[in-house]
Amino acid sequence: MVINVASRLFREHGFDGIGLKDLMESAGLTQGAFYKQFASKDDLAAQASRRALESAFHRWSAAAAAHPQDPLGAVIAFYLSMDHRGERMDGCPVVALGSDAARQGFDVKASFEAGIKDYLDLLGPWVGEAGDGEPGSKAMATLSTMVGAVVLARAVNDEHLSKRFLQAAAESVLTGASAGEAQQGPVQ
């Protein structure tokens, strides 16, 4: 329960933007109960990050499973949407917390690294890369484009400009993926 609440609140406020007292109150518990469950706020941040990234991965997987003929298109449709742009508490943790995670300790970074690798493992075959265990440059560029577009779309007030960032990224990713398929042939 606390991990789920923290996962959402960290995405909304950042790791340092909310204190333990407010976190625990939001979970319906006292601050004293925190230390019975977690070694430190860093421990909670690592567990909450892991949970948020797992949730995001399941969302990607569900979108892909619902549209097996075009899994990349399905993920792009929700990820690079104005709805996702507005999901401060439930959106992609890499978008919401990526720059914060870079300033955190080993365990938080490890949670992010594992989640990012999961994203890359899904993207690889969709952009025409063989699954040899090592992320390919197309998958990395695709993820970078997607995350960057949502970050930029959230950073501006102008809704039209925000939509244009998302649309441009979607076009770029889908064009790049279809070019990769044309060069390498269909992915089995």
Q: What does this entry look like structurally?
A:
This is TetR/AcrR family transcriptional repressor of nem operon. The chain is mainly α and 188 residues long. The protein has one domain (52-184): Tetracycline Repressor, domain 2 (Orthogonal Bundle). 75% of the residues lie in helices and 0% in strands. The protein is built from ten helices and no strands. Helix 9 (137-155) runs antiparallel to helix 10 (159-184). The longest helix has 26 residues, at 41-66.
Notable characteristics:
10 helices, Homeodomain-like_sf, globular, DNA-binding, 188 residues, disordered C terminus, mainly alpha
At the fourth CATH level, what is the homologous superfamily? Tetracycline Repressor, domain 2
Per DSSP, the total helix count is 10
Q: What is the percentage of strand-forming residues? A: under 5%
Share of helix among residues? over 70%
Unreliable stretches, pLDDT < 50, 5 or more residues?
182-188
Organism: Labrys monachus
Domain HTH tetR-type: 1-56
DNA-binding region: 19-38
Keywords: DNA-binding, Transcription, Transcription regulation
